[in-house]
Amino acid sequence: MLTELNIKNLAIIDELNVTFTEGLNILSGETGAGKSIIIGAVSLLLGDRASSDLVRSSAESAVVEALFDVSGNEEVRKKLEEAGIDEADELLLKRVVSREGRNKIYINGSPATLGMLAPLGELLVNICGQREHQVLLDSDNHIDILDTFGGLTSLRAQFYDLYTDWQTLKKKMGELEARNNEKSQREELLKFHLDEIEKSDVKIGEDIALQGEKRILGNAQRLDAYAGRAHDALYVAEGSVLERLGGVVDDIKEIRKIDPTLKISEEDMDSVFFNLEEISFVLRDYVKGITFDPVRLEAIEDRLEYLGRLRRKYGATIEDILRRKEEITEELEGIAYLGEEIARLSDEISQRETLLLGKAGDLSEKRRKSAGDLKGMIEDEIHSMRMADTVFDARFANGIGEADVSSLNPKGMDEVEFYLSTNVGEELMPLNRIASGGELSRIVLAVKKVLAGTGAVGTVVFDEVDSGIGGAAAEVVGEKLKDVSRHHQVICITHLPQIACFGDTHFLVSKKVRGDRTNAAVNLLSEKERLDEITRMLSGVEMTKKTRQHASEMLKMSKR
Question: Are 73 and 125 contacting, i.e. CB atoms less than 8 angstroms apart?
């Protein structure tokens, strides 16, 4: 139940606070006073699109807040739990719309998204206005209304899950069959690729090793020159490093014979000499091993170019090429078992279709029973609203049990459309071809009245439910709204005193000009103020004593 609504800087509303009560809450006022803005504010909290045009002139942002009593509403608690928001008996929704177009949403003080807000809004408030008329006129929605009335939403959800799984299996089957149709061509291509990789005999690290060998072969002459010069300088040339170092070693030995305190050991000098000698031998052998082999160099370059083509075709590295080889092998194995997989999946789809048809038949049977009950209850409600000759029917496009898998859809096997005849002897016609504005308003109300005991939503908002009606019919509509308010909190915007007099609480929406700004206000009416408003609604501009007496009598009658 909506307990409190706060609006700030929205259109012509500067700041507004309304506390609603249980039962039937009436909002009345002159045309253009701002009643539709209040409904628009509630719609924002239900997830409707927000526009920066809504922000009041000179303000940076508009704020709408609503406090709901959700004690005992398990569906709301479940949604909050799924969203990771703390549960409580009260739920605070807040939406901020900035002039720059940015939106902020809060649920119980926690930042939230539009995707989190909209499912919650559906469980809290149902707005019945001109859009609801369009919903009722669209035959695609009639099956949803019937299922809600019949309490079939759980059964339909079970069917939908089966249907979704079935569609997934069919999609997989289509992919397998497409692969099977292309199997020969695909298998031939895969075998060619596998053969090419296997014949290449690539090995991890091969390209790095070849690059190193290529670098050496390409620089053979320079390496020979460098190593030869170094070997000659160390060992061969006259006055080589080792020859001169030998003299140094001999001199140090002579010094130590005379002065053994010299801190250079013969062993250290010998170690230096032998290390350099060993280096010279390594360089000598290295020079002997250097060969310039243009044939080998060409072979290396050809191999590297070949590996490059493989990388461009199968992967950026040799590791990727070998990984692709494994993937190809697995796919070839899968192709070999493709026929078996298709047969297995075909059996699974067939079993699923049997389940689907059984569930769809069960759902259709229950719908037909519910359709008869809905017909009787809707007609009772419509007849009581001064449409005594009206006949209503929920018709099925298909016959009983007339279905195969080709006729299944996410909602089952049925197509349902509401038909109506408003006068004796007239043929029943689809609802969208027969109902006038006033008739449609009463039909919408009749549907809401019938569904009142089946929905979990706490608050129902009726906007312009009085469109096209008046007089005694309006009085009956008021009675129906009163009946709905016994199951749900009802907020009703109306211009008709015959409806307004049934309210448990009555608010007056007005607008005033202060300085150079227009501002809308909502005031809770006292009994006296309420009598004044009902009188105004009856008489218009000129309020007479007789009109006031009539208004007083209407209020007394509504209470009885």
Answer: no
Q: Which amino acid is at 464?
A: E
Structure tokens at 86: 């703390």
End-to-end CA distance of the chain: 26
Q: What is the mean pLDDT of the chain?
A: 85
Contact between residue 361 and residue 413 where contact means Cβ atoms under 8 Å apart = yes
Q: Which of 252-256, 292-296, 447-451, 507-511 has the lowest mean pLDDT?
A: 447-451
CA distance 72 to 78: 11
Among the listed ranges 153-167, 183-197, 329-343, which one has the minimum average pLDDT value? Answer: 329-343
The number of helix segments (H) and strand segments (E) in the chain equals 19, 15
Here the tokens at position 267 are 């062993």
Residues 95, 84: contact at Cβ < 8 Å?
no
pLDDT for 119-146, tens place per residue? 888 788 877 765 666 667 788 889 988 9
Place of tokens 């590295």: 317
For the 1-129+458-524 domain, the top CATH level (class) is alpha beta
What residues contact residue 95 under an 8 Å CB cut-off, 6+ apart? 44, 45, 50, 63, 64, 65, 103, 104, 105, 106, 117
Contacts 24+ apart (CB under 8 A), 278-285: 279/234, 280/231, 280/234, 280/235, 280/242, 283/227, 283/228, 283/230, 283/231, 283/234, 284/231, 284/235
Band of the pLDDT at 548, cuts 50, 70, 90?
confident
Domain ranges of the chain: 1-129+458-524, 186-336, 526-560
**Residue owning tokens 């809450």:** 25
Considering only CA atoms, which of 219, 237, 218 is closest in space to residue 228? 237
Q: What is the pLDDT, as a whole number, of residue 137?
A: 77
pTM: 0.60
Sign of CA dihedral 441, 444, 450, 456: negative
Pairwise CA distance, residues 156 & 144, whole Å: 10
Q: Give the DSSP H/E element, type plus range, for residue 475.
A: helix 471-484
* Pairing of β 416-421 and β 103-107: unpaired
23-43 pLDDT, tens digit per residue, is 999 998 887 777 888 888 888
Q: Strand 125-128's sheet: what is its strand order?
A: 125-128, 459-463, 489-493, 24-28, 505-514, 517-524
